Amino acid sequence: MSAPDTDLFFGMDGTDGTDAPGTDDTGARRRPEDGGGNVPMSVTVRVPAKVNVQLAVGGLRPDGFHDLANVFLAVGLYDEITVTPTAPTEGPRVTCSGPDTHHVPLDRSNLALRAVDALALRHGISPDVHVHIDKDIPVAGGMAGGSADAAGALLACDTLWGTRTPREELLDICAELGSDVPFSLVGGAALGRGRGEVLTPLEVGGTFHWVFAVADGGLSTPAVYRECDRLRERRGTGSGVDDVPAPEASPVLLAALRSGDARLLAANLSNDLQPAAVSLLPSLDETLAVGREAGALAALVSGSGPTCAFLAEDPASASDIAVALRDADVCRDARTATSPAPGATVLRAAV
Ligand SMILES: C[C@@](CO)(OP(=O)(O)O)[C@H](O)COP(=O)(O)OP(=O)(O)OC[C@H]1O[C@@H](n2ccc(N)nc2=O)[C@H](O)[C@@H]1O
Ligand SMILES: Nc1ncnc2c1ncn2[C@@H]1O[C@H](COP(=O)(O)OP(=O)(O)O)[C@@H](O)[C@H]1O
């Protein structure tokens, strides 16, 4: 399978009967008060989680970020974002459903609402929408759930408002919202340079089978980067841009992705943030060990953690690893998923 054409994932999947008479190709009906424009009354977008199959972290930059060679792979765990217009007096609001709801901020700091605000500002529109997040991606788990919600809300509102924002502009807004947000929009697999926001799509030659051990709590991304710097200082190597070698993507890892060879990928997975995540949460070592003993080809912390990712040989092995992780009581839940997965995709645009 080659890398997904990123344009593909900005449109409908076309599976929900949206070609009914009186609708356009996004399923939107014409409303007379809209002067003939096609305006859906609600839009639902699905967005995947990610795992970093390589996360090479450079030195701390003067702006507080680190240069990265960040090899993103989208995985088939999804949040669904639905946007519906509200009355202008009501203003924007966000609600959330799913097991992690109590960890999601429901004020204007929610990344999905920040995305709505950013798109509305860009087009001079009032951001009067209700955003509902049906959350399946673990919160603060190193799987980019907040970024997924931001990318999803952006695409959903662009469809709802008919603003047809060019893809490059959408990606610019994503990058302003967070380093991982552009990848959530694009999905598939990509190399993220800069602070992770400058993307180059990557080819993936097969399906990879993963197990994710979801931890009880979360880890703060800035705290994990700070710990990475602290460990580097303690080692005496320094943590600045002049002390740490410029991060580079591994050619063998990229070849493993291209070929779809799970064993080659397993042998080349790496995460420079893993020592920092384990230092902040030492119990992760045991979680990683349980998955390895249960037959994982490789185990690593997903991004800033604390979710642990296990690459499996096949679906049966993935199921065995998930059972072993649950039985050992080293995680809140163990989820199986495959990659690559498509980026933000409009599922429904309904009247
Ligand atoms: C570590 C990674 C790996 O993909 O994701 P997670 O595993 O947390 O999901 C990312 O680099 C996280 O990206 P994201 O969560 O979008 O971070 P941002 O909002 O842009 O930045 C939050 C904070 O993380 C730190 N940060 C982030 C990106 C980067 N390249 N260098 C950094 O030092 C900075 O302290 C920054 O203030
Ligand atoms: N829509 C959102 N979903 C999840 N977290 C959000 C959201 N908006 C803001 N946040 C905040 O972002 C933090 C990081 O969450 P998340 O993106 O899930 O984790 P990570 O950065 O580890 O991938 C959370 O602790 C939460 O306070």
UniProtKB/TrEMBL annotation:
GO terms for molecular function: kinase activity. Pfam families: GHMP_kinases_C, GHMP_kinases_N. The active site is at 50, 180. Residues 110-188 form the GHMP kinase N-terminal domain. It catalyses: 4-CDP-2-C-methyl-D-erythritol + ATP = 4-CDP-2-C-methyl-D-erythritol 2-phosphate + ADP + H(+). ATP binds at residues 138-148. Residues 1-42 are annotated as: Disordered. Its EC number is 2.7.1.148. Keywords: ATP-binding, Isoprene biosynthesis, Kinase, Nucleotide-binding, Transferase. InterPro entries: GHMP_kinase_C_dom (IPR013750), GHMP_kinase_C_sf (IPR036554), GHMP_kinase_N_dom (IPR006204), IspE (IPR004424), Ribosomal_Su5_D2-typ_SF (IPR020568), Ribsml_uS5_D2-typ_fold_subgr (IPR014721). Residues 253-327 form the GHMP kinase C-terminal domain. It is an enzyme of class 2 (transferase). Pathway: Isoprenoid biosynthesis; isopentenyl diphosphate biosynthesis via DXP pathway; isopentenyl diphosphate from 1-deoxy-D-xylulose 5-phosphate: step 3/6. Residues 11-25 have a biased composition (Low complexity). SUPFAM superfamilies: GHMP Kinase, C-terminal domain, Ribosomal protein S5 domain 2-like. Belongs to the GHMP kinase family. IspE subfamily. Catalyzes the phosphorylation of the position 2 hydroxy group of 4-diphosphocytidyl-2C-methyl-D-erythritol. This is 4-diphosphocytidyl-2-C-methyl-D-erythritol kinase. The lineage of its organism: Bacteria, Bacillati, Actinomycetota, Actinomycetes, Kitasatosporales. The gene is ispE.
